[in-house]
Design a protein that fits this description.
The structure is a single chain. With about 70 residues, the protein is of the alpha+beta class. The chain has one domain: Translation Initiation Factor IF3. The chain has a four-stranded mixed β-sheet, with helices on one face.
């Protein structure tokens, strides 16, 4: 279970990444954030963003509603 949850299912690119970035900035290292998004680009966007920012992608489930769990580093 994640420390925080963020619902981005009604948002389109780039808003899910912007929202999760803002949320992670408020969290402490080691905490986890679960994000759900329905934007088709979310899976590739979140993978690239996590790699660029140095966080850890713990889980990524693709489908009509995609779910990512990210650990802040």
């Amino acid at each position: 279970m994640a420390d925080k949850y963020l619902d981005c299912t009604q948002l389109r690119c780039p808003m899910p990444i912007i929202k999760l970035s803002k949320e992670l900035k408020q969290m402490t290292p080691g905490q986890t954030l679960a994000v759900e998004a329905s934007d088709p680009a979310f899976a590739s966007d979140v993978q690239a963003w996590v790699k660029t920012m140095g966080h850890e992608l713990l889980e990524l489930k693709e489908g009509p509603v995609q779910k990512a769990v990210i650990r802040k580093q």
